[in-house]
Amino acid sequence: MKKIAILRCMNVSNRCTGSGCLKAWNGRDRAFSGYAEEDQLISFFHCNGCDCDPATDEGMQKKLNRLQKNGITVVHTGDCTVRDKESGLRCPKINEIVQLLQERGIETVHGTHHK
Ligand code: SF4
After folding, report:
1. What is the pLDDT of residues 27-51, one digit of tens each?
2. How far is CA 73 from CA 41, 58, 85, 86, in A?
3. Domain 3-110: top CATH class
4. In 3D, which of 19, 3, 8 has the Cα closest to residue 78?
5. Of all atoms in ligand 1, which is nearest to the CA of residue 94?
6. What is the DSSP letter of 4?
7. Which residue among 12, 13, 47, 99 is best mutated to probe the pocket of ligand 1, counting the most ligand atoms within 8 A of its Cβ?
8. Pocket lining for ligand 1, CB < 6 angstroms
9. I need a labelling partner for 1 at 20 to 30 A (CA). Which of 25, 33, 63, 70 fits?
10. Which pLDDT tens digit goes with each residue over 53-80?
């Protein structure tokens, strides 16, 4: 069984209910089409903002530790983490978090419900 988390943008979370991501997950649609019924969405978390240094931020370290402790195998980055829709360039803070996740052996996949 795979354990999944979704990482999204803190700024966007001020105005987003997350229903696009969750609808895609529940229907095993779009970026989630390869998952089995038994796979579980365990976590839905956000970055700690544009001023945060993910590598040293205490709160982010706690989140990463918790994800690892909970056996998360794959983290999907939300479509809201793309800054430039034309080029597909992701927010640099999100890229740093992705790097930290990968260093902990957690697979990362870009995208949720736009794919
Ligand atoms: S760091 Fe990036 S993902 Fe996080 S709130 Fe700022 S723009 Fe959004």
Report:
1. 999 999 999 999 999 999 999 999 9
2. 10, 22, 27, 29
3. alpha beta
4. 8
5. 3
6. E
7. 47
8. 9-11, 47, 49-50, 81, 91, 93-94
9. 63
10. 999 999 999 999 999 999 999 999 999 9
